[in-house]
User: Fold this.
Amino acid sequence: SGREQAKRNGVRMGRKVGSTETLADKQNKYPHAIKLLRKGGYKLTEIIAICESKGEKISLATLKRLNALV
Assistant:
């Protein structure tokens, strides 16, 4: 196929290097959310409300991804 032929010719496939955030980047971007996830005892929707009151905008999907990493 064309994809296999491109790989043989040395074409780089997938996301560009540096396009995804690492856990360290996310820790800098969402410090309150990560602190509350590690502390435990909060519902995800409660964490969203607390973070928004502190000026940290975070979606439920992002919070679920962070929860899996933490």
Summary: Helices lie at 2-8, 23-29, 31-39, 44-53, 60-69. DSSP finds five helices and no strands in the chain.
